[in-house]
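Q: Given only this backbone (104 positions), what sequence would you predict?
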């Protein structure tokens, strides 16, 4: 199975993907695959907050895989509100564009 095919399934919010004669539940595979990178993301966030995690009241989750990290982030930051954008893959590009326009 190609990475492009998996990414397409994620972008189109499909929950299953066919591999030959088999149908695979994509959500469970992605959940398992995200565990290790999610720990790295949580560690990076905690390091950047240092001793001030109480100053954070909201985390905006963007990027194609951002939603996969949300459970680990919610566990690490239980008193924080989380928001995932409807189009997380495009959120970074839109944000950079808006920033560029605003700073010209």
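A: Predicted residues:
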């Amino acid at each position: 199975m190609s990475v492009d095919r998996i990414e397409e399934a994620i972008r189109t919010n499909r929950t299953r993907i066919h591999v030959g004669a088999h149908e695979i539940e994509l959500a469970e595979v992605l959940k398992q695959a995200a565990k290790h990178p999610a720990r790295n993301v949580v560690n990076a966030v905690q390091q950047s907050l240092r001793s001030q995690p109480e100053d954070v009241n909201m985390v905006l989750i963007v990027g194609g895989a951002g939603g996969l990290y949300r459970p680990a982030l919610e566990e690490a930051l239980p008193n924080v509100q989380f928001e995932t954008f409807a189009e997380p893959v495009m959120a970074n590009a839109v944000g950079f564009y808006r920033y560029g326009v605003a700073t010209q």
